[in-house]
Amino acid sequence: MLDSWYELVSALLPFQWVDHTFMKNALLAVLLATPLFGILSTMVVSSRMAFFSDSLGHGAFTGIAIGMLVGGLSPLWGIILFSIAFAVLITLIKHKSKTAPDTIIGVFASTAVALGLVIMSFGGGFNKFSSYLIGDLLSIAPLEIIMLLGVFVGVILLWLLIFNKLLIISINPSLAASRGINTLLIEILFSSALAVVVAMTIQWVGLLIINSLLVLPAAAARNITSNVRQYHFASVCFAVFSGITGLILSYYLNSATGPTIVLVASLLFFTTFALRSRFIR
Amino acid sequence: MTSKGKHNCEKDENACQRLCCTKIENFNVSVGKTQILKDVNIHIHCGELTAVIGANGAGKSTLLKAILGEVAHTGSLKYFDAKGARSGHPCIGYVPQYLNFDLSTPTSVLDLFMASLTNLPSWLMSSQTIRTRVTQSLEKVKAEHLIDRRLGALSGGELQRILLALALEPIPDLLLLDEPVSGIDQNGLELFYDIVSELREKFDLSIILVSHDLALVEKYADRVILLNGRVICNGTPEQVFADEQTRKTFGMPAANGQNAAKEHASARERLEL
Predict the structure, then answer these.
(1) N or C: which end of chain A has fewer CB within 10 A?
(2) Over chain A, what is the mean pLDDT?
(3) What is the pLDDT of residues A217-273, one digit of tens each?
(4) How far apart are CA A211 and CA A202, in angstroms?
């Protein structure tokens, strides 16, 4: 399925770390997933949704458990469907009620995790689920990469359509509404896209750190940019750079891939934070 | 507004004198069991600046949100143009209080306009055509030099003008201005209102201004509405400021109402407390 990719990598990158097929797969997954993290994180940070995106990981966790319980449904589809439902529900309730958003998210995230844990404990052991906590990028299968490619295309198309509106909403929701923007619809689309990306990647990156990939690239980019084009460009570059560097480092250090990627991204954040006064007037 | 029992300063409200007007009829807003606005009727002629004043919690911002359609309400909002050629829901321009903005965001003035005015992906591209268009728009409010400035690097007054320019794209039938309580220096405020006055004449705009600054209201408004859950008083600035209800709301001494400026200044101080 991915033979031409394997040949391409072997021809272009004559390094030891890409000799293995699982590394070639992981590299492709990183190249597809990290730009998405870079793009989506711009609005996660601008709309102050870091806590929301964190809760999506918890929603996905419950999705895994429900997927297992129902059976017949592959875990991935269970995660995707449940995550979307979870994200849409939170967004709807956030819109309709006057309760502070962080309270609503807190309620949902803890409910979801508790539900997930209860379901998982039916079988008697959590061990088979522990891989979802840390994730394993090297276990990625070719079919999942093809699905990720589909998600990649979908998110880019969605971003072309809704980014302008999302930007206005993040600046001031009333202003957005006065310009005829359907704020609820746009927010639902955005949170669903986040949910799908989280659901797709949680088994490789892990529940514990998936949120950092939705926060760090843009947080670092904000330190050194002053318009949305620079913001996106920097955020995507940081995400891709962290992804590839982390992948290579983890191979040679024999460390877990996801956390290594996150550490590289954190390093970028602190570096840009220290340098921010040179870039922003 | 001509209904009996209400404290009205003016009775002549039936016809659109200039034939171009916006009518807010029977606005009622309830949140839970609390009625915030009751039977609010406001009638605005094109080219007029109507100021809405009132104490905190009088429903001023709720009125704006109801007009914008953000808050559920009963009653109707209708626009009639001068030739009778078009009527219906007005095209609304809104200048929010800049204090509610997230100003740390890496977004330039150009980005804000591009995202508001076009469907072209502002995260991917920019074009000379759009730049020219935005520059023209900013010239209306004397802010063309700010086009590449980050939103967070603008002063309160500058951002207010930029939001005004944005609200004028396209030229609205009804312009809503939500005046911040503080944060803009006096020069900035006067420049802003001078521009508003100029644009009002040039484009024959109907304007509703929610204001906390009675001195500015007196200087720039054609008509003043005192709101407290319902329209308490409605008339010219002289009429409304002379009214005993207004004087009570803003704690002005119940005097003859002619030595206004001084009292308004003291009323403003009280408002800010």
Answers:
(1) C
(2) 89
(3) 999 999 999 999 999 999 999 999 999 999 999 999 999 888 999 999 999 999 999
(4) 10
Cβ contacts of A59 within 8 Å, gap of 6 or more: A82, A83, A86, A87, A108, A109, A112, A195, A198
Q: How far is CA A75 from CA A65, A205, B251, in A?
A: 8, 16, 67
Give pLDDT tens digits for B15-40: 454 467 888 888 888 888 888 888 88
As given in the structure block, the two tokens for residue A5 are 């990719």
**What residues of chain B have any CB closer than 8 angstroms to a CB in chain A?**
65, 68-70, 92-94, 96, 100-102, 104-108, 110-112, 114-116, 118-126, 148, 150-151, 153, 163, 166-167, 176
Of residues A170, A178, A226, nearest to B108 (C-beta) = A226
The reply to whether A96 touches chain B by the CB within 8 Å rule is no
**Contact (Cβ atoms closer than 8 angstroms) between residue A63 and residue A83:** yes
Q: Which of A165, A172, A281 sits opposite B101 (nearest CB)?
A: A172
Max mean pLDDT among B2-6, B75-79, B161-165 falls in: B161-165
Chain A closest-CA separation from residue B121 CA (Å): 5
Task: Tell me: ipTM over 0.90.
Answer: no
Question: Phi and psi (nearest 5°) for A190?
Answer: -65, -45
Is A227 an 8 Å CB contact of chain B?
yes
B124/A232 touch (CB, cutoff 8 Å), yes or no: yes
3-class DSSP state of B234:
strand
Model pLDDT for residues A146-162, shown as the tens digit of each residue: 999 999 999 999 999 99
